[in-house]
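Format notes (please read before filing issues)

Several people have asked whether sequences and structure tokens are stored in separate files. They are not. Every record keeps both together, in the order shown below: the sequence lines, then the token lines. Line labels are part of the format and must not be stripped during preprocessing.
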Amino acid sequence: MIVVELKQTNDIEPCQIAEVSVEKENSRQDSTNLDESVGDDSVDSPQLEGQVLHELITIRELLEGQLLKYISRDKAFEKLYEELDYLKRNRAFEDNRSMFIDIALLIDRVSTASKESSEHCRCVLISIQEELLEILDRRDIEVMNEGSNVFDPRYQKAIRTEEVDDESLNNRIVRVLRPGYMFRDIVLRPQEVVLGRFFLA
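Then the structure lines:
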């Protein structure tokens, strides 16, 4: 169409008409190539998305693996520190075991004296007793629980027996003479108790 119009004007030379025709043809080819390239992108788009998704999954798995390694390492260090602290405290307990037993004896004497003293002295002695117990507590030493009357030779020491009228109290703890003390799961001093003895008439 452009060639015919140029010929009618008679002002353009034949070589110029040929150049315009070539440019028009090149424009058509470029348009065709652009359409083909767009078509190719639309075809390859799902494959590209799949590759990106696969790479993202791989990166996530690598990050999760590294995170698990860090968590495991932190737990291992934490457990190691706890074991070292446990050994350190046990060593300190063994080095000062005799001193802790002496403190327990002192608590017994203060407790006995408070029961035989005046009201004012009793308050002072009870305060001293509580402070001594607090010293032991800071070293993880606690007084044994007196809730059960079942005798356990691992934690109690029978000092004597008393006759009882109730058969259910036979070989049971009827009285605690001196409290026992525990360092974690180690007996510092056993609980000194009196056991009941039932005799048939």
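For reference, the curators noted about this record: Confidence is low (pLDDT under 50) at residues 1-12, 14-18, 37-43. The beta strands are 141-143, 156-164, 173-178, 181-183, 186-189, 191-198.
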